[in-house]
Design brief:
Number of strands: 5
Largest sheet: 3 strands, antiparallel
Number of helices: 3
Radius of gyration: 17 Å
Strand order of the largest sheet: 2-1-5
Order of helices and strands: EEHEEHHE
Shape: elongated
Structural class: alpha+beta
Strand content: 25-35%
Helix content: 10-25%
Distance between the termini: 21 Å
Number of domains: 1
Length: 123
């Protein structure tokens, strides 16, 4: 029986990209801690100082990547947010299973696992 992972992500203002990829049992076991961590993500606040004194900013993106990561506002990288999971796990998920928009993504909206019993190639 084949297994597939379907990951849907937000790229910008509700522009979604989806990737549907066959996944091995070994990879699934490896990335499950990251999936749980993404599911448990809570927005966080950052206090920044600037020429005007400072401000507080709340970040709600659970997977800020590429151009959608707001470093100027103190937004953490994916590696910082999920440092307990480990860089290797994040790399496997990002390189094999995570969709990527034209300029990256900022939020994983959903992850689904499909077990395919039968497949018929129609064309």
């Amino acid at each position: 029986m084949k297994k597939f992972l379907k990951v849907t992500a937000d790229t910008n203002d509700a522009d979604y990209v989806t990737k549907f990829t066959e996944i091995s049992e070994a990879d699934l076991v490896i990335i499950l801690p990251l999936i749980r961590a993404i599911k448990d993500f809570k927005p966080y606040k950052v206090k920044k100082k600037d020429n005007m004194g400072g401000y507080e900013w709340t970040h709600s993106h659970n997977f800020p990547d590429s151009q959608y990561r707001r470093e100027d506002l103190g937004e953490q990288s994916v590696y910082e947010i999920y440092e307990d999971v480990g860089e290797k796990v994040i790399d496997i998920f990002t390189q094999k299973y995570c969709p990527y928009g034209e300029n990256g993504i900022h939020t994983i909206e959903s992850i689904s696992l499909y077990e395919v019993v039968n497949e018929e190639i129609l064309l």
